[in-house]
Amino acid sequence: MLRSETTIPVCLLLALWLLAPIVRGQGLKVADQLQPHPRILLTEDLKRRVKASCEAEDCWQELDKLVMGTAERLFDEPVTPIYFRGKTMLPQARELFRKVFFLSYAYQFSGDADFAKRGIKEITHAATLESWNPKVFLDVAEMTMAVAIGYDWLYDEMNPSERQLVKDALIKKGIKPSYDNTFNQFLTLDNNWNQVCNAAMVWGAMAIYEDAPQLAAKTIARSLKSSHLPMEKYSKNGVFPEGVMYWTYGTTYHILMLEALAPLLKEPVESFCSEGFMASGQFFLHMIANSGSTFNWSDALEKHYLNPAIFWMAAHTGDPSLLWNEKKVLEQKDFKELRQSRMLPAVLLLGAEFSPGDIPSPSSRSWRGAGENEVVTMRSSWEDPEGIFLGFKLGNASEHHAHMDMGAFVLESDGVRWAMDMGMQDYHSLASKKVDLWDSRQQGGRWTVFRYSNHGHNTLTIDDSLMDVTGKARLLKYSDQKDFRFAVGDLSDVFLRKDRSVTRGVGIKNDDHVIVKDEISASSAPIKIRWKMVTSAKVDTNGNVAILKKDGKEMKLEVKSPKDAEVKVWPASRSNRYDAPNKGASLVGFELSVEKERAETIEVLLIPGSSSMTPMPSQPLSEW
Predict the structure, then answer these.
(1) CB distance 519 to 488 below 8 Å
(2) Rounded CA gap, 580 and 271, in Å?
(3) Is residue 133 over pLDDT 80?
(4) Which residues make Cβ contacts (< 8 Å) with residue 15, sequence separation at least 6?
(5) pLDDT averaged over the chain?
(6) Which residues contact 115 (CB under 8 A, 6 or more apart)?
(7) Which residues pair with 462 in a beta bridge?
(8) What pLDDT digit, counting tens, does each position of 40-63 carry?
C-alpha cells in the first residue's frame, strides 16, 4: 500500500544538514525539508493535478491508459535480460528503464501493489549483476536511472532485504564508479553524455540520500558543477549543436536532473540554467516541419515523438506556443508507438496540465538559429499541414554527431517531404563491421559512410571530394518578409579547395515555390560541381526538368541556370558493404564542369504541384 506519513525522518534532516554547505558552494540555497520516498519528480500534489488533467482531457486520459495497459502487459513478460551487444548493453539498460518507469507510474497512480511487485523483480535482478558496465558509462547511467526510480517509487512495497540489495547496487554499481578516473570522463565532456550521466548520478544520490548522506551530497554538488559544461554549448538563441534528436536526449535528462533537485532547492531551477538552454525550446519548435517530421540534420531520425523536455520549457518560459507540434500529436492521438518510449511517464508528469485547446500557434514563420551550427527554417504556414517547409543547415562537421551537411536543405510541400536528409545509420550496424564511426578526422572512418558525408546530402560536391572537416559555413543574411523568406550562406570555407568563393541562397517565394541558388566565383583552375537532392519520390527527367511524384502529389524541379543542365537520377548509396541500403531513396541532380577563369551561377526552382506561381526574373544573391 502507499505510505501516507508526512513526517521527515531524522536521517533525512541529517542528510540535508550535510548537503547544505556543499550545495551553497554552488551558489544555491537548500530547502529546510526533503520529502520521504517517493521524492524523485513526484509529490502528492502533482499526482492530484495529473489525475485531474487525465479526467478533464481525453488525450491525457488515453496516455495514462497507455502507460497502465503497457504496465499490465509486463506481468506476462520475463525479467529484462541484460546482455552485451558489442561493447555495450545500452539497449537492454534502456528497456529496463522503460519497464521500471511504467510499472512505477502504474503503482503510484493506481495503488495496485502488483505493479510494484513486478517492478521490484526488475530492479532486484539488475542489482544482482556483477557490474553495470562502467567502461561505457552511458550504460551505468541508464541502469542507475532505472534502479533509482524503482527504488524511490516502489520503496514502500519492498522488504528490508530488497531495499538493502538495491540500495547497495545503486551505490556500488551506479554512483561509486563515477569517482573512478578510469570511467568518469563524462564529467569533463560538453555533450549529451554529460547531461545523461550527471542526471543519473543525481537520481541515484536522491534515491539513497538518507543512507549515504555524505556521498549523496558530494555527488549532487559535483553534478551541478559539471553540468554547466553542456549548458554553455546551447547558442544564445537556443541551437543545440548536436541536432534535434540529441537535443531531445540531452535536454530531457538535464531537465529530469533539475526537476529531481527542485524540492531540494529554495531558488527556482531556472536560475541554474543558461540563457541558451532556456531559449532552446524555440530550437526544438522550429525543427519540426508541417508534416510533424523533424529537420533531422546531424545524427537524427525524422520521427517526432512527445518528449517531456518541451513541456518543461513551455511551463518554465511561460510560452505555450512552444507546444504547437505537441498540440497536433495530442489532438490526433497518434500514440501507438509511445508504449516503447521510456519517457512517456515523464511526459504525463511534466505535460498533463497543458490543454491542447489552449496552445496558440507561434508568431514567426521563420527562425534563425545562431551559434557554431547555424540553421534557418521557414514555412508558408503553421496551421496548414500541406504548407511549404524549408530548412537550411550551415555550420560545421566538427561538432559531436555532425555530418558533412553544410549547405544542405530539406523541403516539404503538399504534405510530402521532397528533399530529405537520410539521417543517422544504426551505430551497431557500423561498429559490427569495424567502421570507426567516431573517427571524424578528414580521412576518418565516419566520412566513409555515405549518409554522413556530403555525397549523401542535399548540398554541393566539388571535384567528387569530401568537404573540409575543419571548415564552417556562415549565414550572411536572412529575411522573414512575407513575399520572400530567405537565407544566404557562405559555403566557401567548407570545401577543400579554397580558390573559389561559394555562396548558396534558399528561399520561399510568395509562399508557393522554393528557390535554391548558388554562385561560384572564377579561379585559375577548372572545377567539377555536382548539385544533388535526396528524395524518396519517383523521378521522371526531361532535360533540365524533373517531375517528382509521391503519395498522389507532384513537384517540379526546374534548373533555371545553367539552361543546358541535364537532370539525372543516381542511387542513394555507394559500394561499401557497411552502408545502409537506403531503400526507396535516390539522388536527383546534375553535374557541370566550370572552366578556369569562369564563374558559374546555379538556380533551381522547386515548384509544388499545388502552386500557381508565375515566372519571376532572376536576381543575384546580392540583391536578395
Answers:
(1) no
(2) 44
(3) yes
(4) 34, 209, 210, 213, 216, 217
(5) 94
(6) 71, 103, 104, 106, 107
(7) 529
(8) 999 999 999 999 999 999 999 999
* Cα 67 from Cα 459, distance rounded (Å): 43
411: which 3 cell numbers?
Answer: 523541403
Task: Retrieve residue 503's grid coordinates.
Answer: 555562396
CB 284 within 8 A of CB 247: yes
Omega before 562 within 30 of 0, i.e. cis: yes
What pLDDT was estimated at residue 35? 85
- What is the pLDDT at residue 575? 80
Query: Given CA atoms 419, 591, 455, 475 in this order, what sign does their dihedral have?
Result: negative
CA gap 206, 18 in Å, rounded? 14
pLDDT at 617: 84
Look at residues 17, 33, 9 and name the one whose alpha carbon lies nearest to residue 265. Answer: 33
pTM of this structure: 0.94
* 114 contact partners, CB below 8 Å, separation of at least 6: 75
Strand partners, 555: 548, 608
Model confidence at 31: pLDDT above 70: no
CA 235 to chain centre: 15
CA distance from start to end of the chain: 68
Question: Could you write out the DSSP letters of every residue in 35-52?
Answer: -SSS-SS--HHHHHHHHH
| Triad 198, 186, 471: Cα angle to 5° | 120
Beta carbons of 603 and 516 less than 8 angstroms apart: yes
pLDDT at position 12 is: 54
Contacts of 606 (CB under 8 A, 6+ apart): 411, 418, 419, 513, 514, 515, 516, 555, 556, 557
For the segment 233-257, the average pLDDT, to the nearest whole number, is 97
pLDDT score recorded for residue 15: 54
- Are residues 389 and 364 in contact, defined by beta-carbon separation less than 8 angstroms? no
